[in-house]
Sequence to fold (174 residues):
Amino acid sequence: TPNRTHRRFCRSTVWITPRSSRCKASTTTKFWNTRQFSKRRFSLLQAIHKRGLPVALCTSSSRIASIKLLEKLGIEDLFTLVVGKEDYTYRKPDPEPYQVTAQKLGIAPKDCLVIEDSEVGLKSAVAAGMQCIVIYNDHTKEHNFSGAVRVVSSAAELDLNEILSVGSTSTRVD
Fold:
């Protein structure tokens, strides 16, 4: 079981949660700018949490800053685990941040789905052996997202069933 002391959030976010209640898998989501933390992202996070699936945040910020931000947003209880820069040596695009997060959750990297917003994060996820959906933003829309399972401009373009089904039927887009 995850270490409950790592339960919080930050400026750049990553969610990890299994794709279905039947299988041990995970989803990871990253947002650089919390002002863009939309109602749709929140509702997806809530829906995943309601299914009893673990959700993790993997961030390049400190765990303490992440915890404070999650608390300020009132969403800290939706996260099972937070992995901050204190938990790994090499930053993205190195796979270590995602590998550490999966290991702490006890989930194999191949069973993880990362939702990222940048090319660096996508490269990190793919190098860790995870699939990745990209939700780009104004700062990253020109990045190269080859290797992503899907690329969208908004969380509104995704639904829970789609997120949970990635992996069983998806192929990488190169």
In short: The mean pLDDT is 75. Residues 136 and 153 are 5 Å apart (CA to CA). Strands lie at 26-29, 56-58, 81-83, 112-116, 131-135, 150-152.
